[in-house]
Write a structure and sequence with these properties.
Blueprint: E1 2-12, H1 19-35, E2 39-44, E3 53-58, H2 61-69, H3 71-76, E4 79-89
Antiparallel strand pairs: 1-3, 1-4, 2-3
């Protein structure tokens, strides 16, 4: 068994006040994630939770950890106060 999907909930950063700004930020974040072997499957605005943003990624834990450790990703993440649920597959 291994972790394959990462589901992150967070709050949109203050500088991204419009949907277009969030979309542009995700384009940049997606490119940074791909450099680390992580694929952004989709992102959106969740319903029924306190967070204002969700991002679902696919990859392995080593690559995802490398992405989280990179300064580039920290700057480019369109969210703050993120929490991630890891999905394990058989």
């Amino acid at each position: 068994m291994e972790f394959r999907y990462m589901v992150t909930y967070g709050r949109v950063k203050e500088q991204y006040r419009t949907y277009e700004a969030v979309e542009e930020a995700f384009e940049k974040y997606t490119k940074a994630a791909e450099k680390h072997g992580v694929k952004v499957l989709f992102w959106g605005l969740p319903f029924g939770v306190s967070e204002s943003l969700i991002c679902v990624c696919e990859g392995n834990m080593e690559d995802y950890t490398a992405l989280l450790s990179s300064t580039e990703a920290e700057v480019l993440e369109p969210w703050t106060d993120g929490r991630t649920n890891l999905v394990m597959i058989p």
